Every structure is written in C-alpha cells, then in structure tokens.
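Issue 218. Parser rejects a valid record. Input:
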Amino acid sequence: MPSNTLLSRTLDAGANLTVDGALATELEAHGCDLEDPLWSAKVLLEQPELVKRVHHDYFRAGATVAITASYQATPLGFARRGIGEEAALERVALSVRLADEARREYLTEKPDAGPLLVAGSVGPYGAYLADGSEYRGDYVLSQNEFLEFHRPRIAALVAAGADFLACETLPSLPEAEALLALMKEFDVEAWLSFTLRDGGHLSDGTPLAQAAKLFSAEPLVAAIGVNCVPLELVSPSLEALGRATDTPLIAYPNSGESYDAVTKTWGPAAASTSGPDTKQPASLAEGTPIWRELGARLVGGCCRTTPQDIAAVTALSETHKPGYRPVGAAGAKNL
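Output the parser choked on:
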C-alpha cells in the first residue's frame, strides 16, 4: 500500500467529490495571455499569485479537488524558454504549494469544508508538443522515453506533497502504462483519465473496456475515467467503463463547445452523432445527475468551464453519501 491513500480512503468512505474546472479559462479571464506553448504553466513564471486565486475561487465554488497548474510544466517545455531543469522543477513544486495555500486559506474561512484534496497534474507528452496530439494519440515513444519524460515532474509533485496524481488527458494506452510504472516507482496513487475517439475508445483506438480491465487490477489506480471530452461522449464512456470495472469513475468534460486543435479555437458544439431518441446534456449541470447515476464518483469540468459551472455541479451532487465519514481535513500532511 502507498504511504498516502487519501483519495482511495475518501472514496471508500462513500464520498462523491467535485473536481475543479478550467484553470486556463479563469487565468485568461484575469487578463493572462496564454498564447504560448507553456499555456497555463506560463503563469507559474509570471503571476503565480493568480494561480492561487483561481484555486481559491474553485474551492469557494464547492470544489473538493484542486488540480495543480503543472499540466504543461515539464523540464523540456521550460527549456524552450531557456529555463534549466532545477528551476523548472521548482515551478512544478510551486504549483503544489499554490494549491495547498489556497486550500489552507479557504479552510480558515470555512473550517468544515474538508477534506479538500490537491491532485498533481501530469499532462501527456502531447501537451508538451502543443500541437493537439493529446486528442489524437498519434505520437510514438518507447516506454523508456515516456518514463524519462514524465519521471522528473512526478518526482517533484510527490516531493512537494501532492495528495495524489491526476494523470490526465491521456490519449493512448502505452503512455498510461508508462505512468502506471512511475506510480509504482514513486508509490503514489493517481487517477487515470483519457481523451476519446468515440464513446468506447481512447484517442489511439484502444477500447475503453480494455484499458479499464487492465488498470482496475492496480491498487494505485484510485479512479479511472475521461476528461477534456465533449459532453455527448461522457455517458457512453462511463457506461463502457462501468461494464468493465468496479474502480471508481471520474468525468470532467469540456463546457460543451467544440475545439479545433489545428486553429486552437473554440466554436459551437458539434452536431450530435447519437440517435434522435438520445438526450444529450447541454451543460455540466445537466450532465452531473446522469453521470453520478452512471457511477462517476468524481465530477468536474475541463476546458472553458468556470467556478459558476462547478458551483452548479456542487449543488447537483450528493457530496456525501449516507454513512460517509470524513477521513481527514486538510490533506496528506495531516494524516
């Protein structure tokens, strides 16, 4: 067993958790220019206090899980800006401290809000490429190359005190398998969340059921699911996962708009490919009760979602199931 099992113990105790929403969207709303390969990680260099402010806003909206600003914070990515590995990894560690500071400040305002959790974001190799390939899964690396890319950031996140890892926006099975190896190396829990080709397949074409069966046997995988996907794919993907695993499920899709990875722009939602009798949710608020019913123990938002969206998720979620008993208050350091 890992030394810190806060996420799995919280879920085992019966809690339904609310994940936060888009970090970049809120940073842009505060005036940040994220037209940069570093994306939100750029703000760790320039205006870190804004990152903490956004985390605080999401806690205030009812989020019980904050995802750190380390999605695109990698030594290779920072090297493009002339920043050495030691300084880059300090920024990764800073992302954890900012989320933890926001958590502690919010608990000062509302002491009964816990437990609040901090998930160390581990974005895919495709995020470093900054070419939309995290939605295609068409890059090919050896397992050793994946390990070398992800290991330094995971080491920094764990050392900085992240409660667990959010291995997110994963488009391919091989990359997820490499991350599992690193979870074992660092003895750390994580959730694994994937991007999709359709409601039954990862972006690289791997059946969701295959991934679910593979990872459900791993005790360090505390939850499995999807993120950064259209609203219409959430229900079919949860259904596919639920048939294949008893592992807790997670879903934090985009707002409902359609993203063009080539032009890096957002537009109206794409027309549904579902049958005419299938009602698709038009928002996180509409989808939350459906996804909870399908087994999503963690629900939140990804791109283009806001604290207002997360407040709606919180209001519609049964945050604590009957018989739920909190397992801790502020995080791993106190358990």
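Fixed in the parser; the record now loads. Residues 6-334 form a domain with the TIM Barrel fold (CATH 3.20.20.330).
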